[in-house]
Amino acid sequence: MIIDIEKMFKDDRQKSRGWTLLEDAYGPDRLNTDRLRFSTIAQLPDLSVREHGLWFRARELRANLGQRHAEGITEHQQELPEHLRGYTLVFTGTIWCSPPPKLVRYVTLMFYKREEQKWEVGSLSLRSRLDDRYRLVHLNRS
Fold first, then answer.
1. Which alpha helices (DSSP H) does 28-131 contain, by range?
2. Could you give the CA distance from residue 63 to residue 23 in angstroms, rounded to a whole number?
3. Alpha-carbon distance values, 117 to 74, 75, 137 (Å)
4. Which residue, among 52, 131, 120, 132, has the nearest Cα to 92 in the 3D structure?
5. Can you name the residues that pair with 138 across neighbouring β-strands?
6. Residues with Cβ < 8 Å from 36, sequence gap 6 or more?
């Protein structure tokens, strides 16, 4: 299925939370769900390694899907395979920074709410400890 991706954020965190948009890799304006891939993220024990390791892993896979793509996918969540419901999906193409004093960088995530039987979009601190329940969302290279 082809999903048209909106030009604007549904949840503009700059307006709603006072965050700063650091990066938004626009990626494709149309997303073919047949090309979506969900790769494991290596366990990265040290904080500085985790923060930069996730970024490098994303670049290695050319994972340029961000918040707008996650928001578009939630509009067509029936396209996501059921086996993904046990994972948290990470979209690294959009990076936000929270306001002072914390100044923490965040990427977008999607998680499945079993009680409501739907996917939700949220934020993941780049300082978070990631394990095998997280999947980096990207497009296959072909």
1. 47-60, 67-74
2. 13
3. 12, 14, 21
4. 52
5. 37
6. 137, 138, 139, 140
Two tokens at 132? 């095998």
Burial 77-95 (b: 16+ CB within 10 A, else e): eeebeeebeebbbbbbbbb
Which token pair is 97?
């920074």
E strands, 2-129, where? 2-4, 20-24, 30-32, 36-40, 88-97, 105-113, 118-125
- Cα–Cα distance for residue pair 38/134, rounded to 1 Å: 9
Record the tokens describing residue 29, joined without a space. 């304006």
Can you give the pLDDT of all 142 residues of the chain as single tens digits? Answer: 788 888 888 888 888 889 999 999 777 788 888 889 998 876 544 444 455 667 677 777 778 899 999 999 999 999 899 999 999 999 999 999 999 888 899 999 999 999 999 999 999 998 887 888 999 998 887 6
CB 22 within 8 A of CB 105: yes
